[in-house]
Design goal:
- The protein is an alpha+beta fold.
- It folds into four domains: about 30-115, Phosphorylase Kinase, domain 1, CATH 3.30.200; about 120-300, Transferase(Phosphotransferase), domain 1 (Orthogonal Bundle), CATH 1.10.510; about 310-370; about 375-575, Serine Threonine Protein Phosphatase 5, Tetratricopeptide repeat.
- The protein has helices spanning about 75-90, 120-130, 135-150, 205, 215-230, 245-255, 270-275, 290-300, 310-320, 325-340, 345-370, 380-395, 400-415, 420-435, 440-450, 460-475, 480-490, 495-505, 510-515, 525-540, 540-555, 565-575; strands spanning about 30-35, 35-45, 50-55, 60-65, 100-105, 110-115, 120, 155, 165, 175, 180-185.
- Strands 1-2-3-4-6-5 form a six-stranded antiparallel β-sheet, covered by helices on one side.
Length: about 575
């Protein structure tokens, strides 16, 4: 792997570039845009960076900044402008991220929105908390209604994915990032035949680059998000990191697998709703996102859904299965219905039916509480697994690595019993760290390898395992093992983890990495310093290595959080 020479970038400032000929300064702490003063970096996307800032009244806001410069096309600028316009049109909906204003100063285009510092993406929420089927579906219902609101205002999102759904500190979902939105009343700014959106979550017509997309395309994408959130896998035989050509072929040609193949406690009707949202033809999906939300609600309540065409026999089976304790009540209702056939037959039977359904639902809830169905037993296992992971992390912060290992073994076993690959990979990642801290590096290498082979693990967990696997292999002077880890899973193409892996391999000098550190989300600062410290050590620069490792400890909050213990071990064992 080739090395590059150190190169410093301006990372802070209080104004704009002095002349048009100068390269624009990269916004950093203290940088001012209009009345907004930047305080910190919140995150970085493909086109723009989001900063924490304060306005003239010292209120906290988020500012999304797009900087003109080399490689920036007119189409990219137009998309950023459209995002601002689309977001402002939708600011009144409670489940769409609120945008206050937008503006431009010199080469800096910006959108000012509500602060999202305490928010997490749906992807992060699924990785860090135990969420039941009902929890996930209720979030998606709210996003579906937000989409319906946008569609009514003739705006298509076109990039629905887990990272564009934020969960705020109150647990409310917010639809964000209208960067590739289509304002139907505006002329298209997309080159004919060009992809817009994220391939794994695209609808078939979007993957085919059809010129006319409608609300059904967003419904399909939201269906993929729901499928993955519940099943822990994608609908097709592809994974995150698969070549784009393979992904597009699967999206356009492959019939989605039933989500109950991966998770048996997904209700049959819920599965039917998801599969209707994933129909290949837009005509066969829901007519609008509101209808999708209604069917999801009915599936949660145990009510018949439009996604399934019930025969008389299906109705009987449906009632018997869902309302075991209400059989007698339903039989009595049947007799009452027969008696009333000659008296205002339609209205009275309908009212009687609806009333009995509500009664039956109450009886069913009592029955389920007393006699849990075998297929739902995985839910307590999943919740217990997360409880063990939380206890293990507390033990890790206390330095009790053997106790943490014991709890993580239990969490891994519960995750396997629940067929929950997401939680299993997270437990294994912590197990590998415990193995490192107890000087069982061979065991850690094996565990990292298992995570890389887990096709249903989340991309973020796999990328972190790959980073730590490569770091450990290089510290053990095993470059071939490090290369093997890079071959087994593609290096993340965007985000900070890809940059960290490139720095480890010597393709990015650690000084260059640290020069751009203000562009990293806060939660990755300690990792950036750790990786810079390891790279400096591998290059023989012990002084720089020690300084970077100490900075990693300082930027870990609390100071006992990973990777601070690993940095302390490296300072103690390698840098004397």
């Amino acid at each position: 792997m080739a090395k590059t020479s150190p190169k410093r970038h301006a990372a802070s400032g209080t104004g704009l570039a002095d002349s048009p000929a100068e390269e624009p300064k990269y916004p950093g702490k203290g940088f001012r845009l209009g009345e907004y003063v930047i305080q910190d970096t919140l995150g970085q996307g493909s086109m723009a960076t989001v900063y924490l800032a304060r306005d003239a009244s010292d209120n906290e806001v988020a500012v999304k900044v797009f900087v003109e410069g080399a490689g920036v096309s007119a189409t990219m600028l137009e998309r950023f402008r459209r995002e601002a316009e689309a977001s402002k049109k939708l600011r009144r909906h409670p489940n769409i991220l609120t945008v206050y204003t937008s503006g431009k100063e010199g080469p800096y285009h910006y959108i000012v929105m509500e602060s999202i510092r305490r928010s997490k993406t749906l992807e992060s929420a699924l990785e860090s908390t135990s969420m039941s089927i009902a929890d996930i579906v209720l979030l998606i219902i709210k996003i579906a209604r937000a989409l319906h609101y946008a569609h009514d205002r003739r705006i298509l999102h076109r990039d629905i994915k887990p990272t564009n759904i934020l969960i705020d500190e109150f647990g409310e979902p917010r639809l964000a990032d209208f960067g590739v939105a289509a304002l139907i009343d505006w002329p298209s700014c997309t080159v004919t035949g060009a992809l817009t959106g994220t391939p794994l979550y695209m609808s078939p017509e979007q993957a085919r680059t059809d010129s006319k997309l409608g609300p059904a395309s967003d419904i399909y994408s939201l269906g993929v998000v729901l499928y993955e959130a519940l099943a822990g896998a994608l609908p097709y035989h592809v994974a995150h990191g698969s070549p784009v050509r393979e992904v597009l072929k699967a999206v356009t040609e492959e019939e989605p697998r039933r989500p109950r193949v991966f998770r048996k406690d997904i209700p049959v009707d819920m599965e039917a709703v998801i599969l209707k949202a994933l129909e290949k033809s837009p005509r066969d999906r829901y007519p609008d996102a509101g209808a999708f939300a209604i069917d999801l609600e009915r599936a949660l309540m145990g009510r018949p859904v439009s996604a399934r065409q019930f025969s008389l026999l299906d109705h009987a089976r449906h009632r018997l299965r869902r309302h075991r304790q209400a059989i007698v009540t339903l039989l009595l209702a049947g007799g009452a219905a027969a008696f009333l056939m000659g008296h205002s037959r339609g209205q009275l039977i309908h009212a009687q039916y609806e009333g009995l359904i509500h009664l039956a639902q109450l009886q069913t809830l009592k029955h389920r509480a007393a006699h849990p169905h075998p297929e739902t037993q995985t839910v307590p296992d999943r919740q217990r697994a997360w409880h063990e992971i939380r206890l293990a992390r507390n033990a890790m912060r206390a330095g009790d690595w053997p106790r943490a290992q014991f709890m993580l073994n239990a969490a891994a076993g519960l995750s396997e019993a629940a067929d929950d690959p997401h939680t299993l990979a997270i437990a294994q990642l912590e197990m590998a760290r415990c193995a490192i801290m107890t000087y069982r590096q061979d065991g850690a290498m094996l565990i990292y390898g298992d995570i890389l082979d887990n096709e249903r693990a989340s991309p973020a967990t796999v990328a972190m395992a790959q980073l730590e696997y490569v770091a450990l292999a290089l510290l053990r002077n095993e470059p071939e093992t490090a290369l093997d880890a890079l071959r087994r899973v593609p290096i993340p193409s965007d985000g900070p983890l890809g940059s960290l892996i490139l720095c480890l391999g010597g393709d990015v000098h650690p000084d260059v990495l640290l020069a751009d550190i203000e562009t990293f989300p806060a939660r990755y600062l300690n990792y950036a310093y750790l990786i810079a410290g390891i790279r400096h050590y591998l290059d023989g620069d012990m002084r720089s290595s020690s300084a970077a490792l100490k900075a990693s400890i300082q930027h870990s909050s609390p100071s006992t959080d990973w990777p601070a213990p690993f940095a302390r071990m490296l300072i103690s064992d390698l840098i004397r």
